Protein: ATP synthase subunit delta
Amino acid sequence: MKEVIAKKYVRALISSLEASEFDKMNESLAILGVVSGFPKLKVILDSPDISSKNKSDFIFSLVENGSEKLKKFINLLGENKRLGLLSDIAKEFAYQKSVKDNEFTGLIFGNFEFSKAEKEQLEQSFSKKFGSKISFETIKNDYNGVKIELDSLGLEVSFSIDRLKAQMSEYILKAI
Structure:
């Protein structure tokens, strides 16, 4: 439900922005999205003793060089008691910006390091496949294989070495 409400606010915000304002707004909302997850801020936002105006002013003060449109947007959220949706709004705005720019970022998980050339080859292959600019961040973890996630496009690809071994053993046993 929160995501649906956040989408409506993001659509309204996007319709009011000039093309040159997208990057700055995305940065500001990303900061607010992270900050809104702090427990102490949630206590402030949930407090009935603090007015909506004071809450909105406080939230706006957390962003350096915030635009007038951001201030009006935060005030609107405050008036409608929707400041708690800032993290959802930040995520949705970042997604809409990715769609607008046709640029997406994904994650590559594995228990080994990828070379720069391998990473670039994957980026080029996925970019060609989806007709978008795809970039990846690599995360080394305990996953025995390779797992690629592109959440924005609803894609997850994995290759598990353990699973391959199990399937090969099963195939060999069936062949015997």
Notes: The longest strand covers residues 103-110. The helical segments are 2-16, 22-35, 39-46, 52-61, 68-79, 86-101, 116-130, 161-175. The domain at 2-99 is CATH 1.10.520.20 (Peroxidase; domain 1). Residues 76 and 151 are 30 Å apart (CA to CA).
